[in-house]
Amino acid sequence: MRKVKKRLKMSKFERLVYVFTVVMLVAMPFALVFSQATLSEINFEVEKLNKKIDAQEKKNESLTMKINELASLDKIQEVAKQQGLTYNNNNIKTIIE
Fold first, then answer.
1. Which residues contact 6 (CB under 8 A, 6 or more apart)?
2. How many Å apart are CA 47 and CA 38, to the nearest integer?
3. 16 lies in some domain
4. The total number of structural domains that make up the chain
5. Which residue among 3, 20, 76, 81 is the one 20 to 30 A from 56 at the CA level?
6. How far is 60 from 83, CA to CA, in rounded Å?
7. What is the distance between the alpha carbons of residues 29 and 84, in angstroms, rounded to a whole number?
8. Does residue 61 fall inside a structural domain?
9. pTM, full prediction
10. DSSP 3-state assignment of 5?
11. Which are the contacts of 77, defined by CB distance < 8 A and separation ≥ 6?
12. Residue ranges making up the domain that contains 65
């Protein structure tokens, strides 16, 4: 006697579902690795920009300190003296509104 194998007949929809499932199982690891690589690259760019921001903030702070130093009364009096100007208290007028 021969054994007869019975094949299950699958509809086109069932085959489509099985093929889609296999494709998804194969594609998911690749998609996961790609998304992690992209995320790492973006994080690297963010860190690079944060370093630039920190450097610019330090530069701005230094320039603000220099402005404050140059705008001090002592510095103004020194520059005025170099230009030949003198301080005369009699020329100062107070205006009160």
1. none
2. 14
3. no
4. 1
5. 76
6. 30
7. 79
8. yes
9. 0.55
10. coil
11. 87
12. 31-86
- If you count them, how many residues does the chain have? 97
Q: Give the chain's radius of gyration (CA, Å).
A: 39
Query: Would 42 be classed as within a structural domain?
Result: yes
Q: What does the alpha-carbon distance between residue 72 and residue 67 come to, in Å, rounded to a whole number?
A: 9
Helix runs in the chain, H state only: 12-70, 73-82
Q: What is the pLDDT of residue 95?
A: 80
Asked if residue 47 lies in contact with residue 39, where contact means CB atoms within 8 angstroms, the answer is no
Q: Does 62 reside within a domain?
A: yes
Taking only the tens place, the pLDDT of each residue in 2-44 is: 666 677 777 888 999 999 999 999 999 999 999 999 999 999 9
Q: Are 65 and 75 in contact (CB under 8 A)?
A: no
Q: Report residue 42 as tokens.
A: 């973006």
Contact in structure between 69 and 75 (CB atoms under 8 Å) = yes
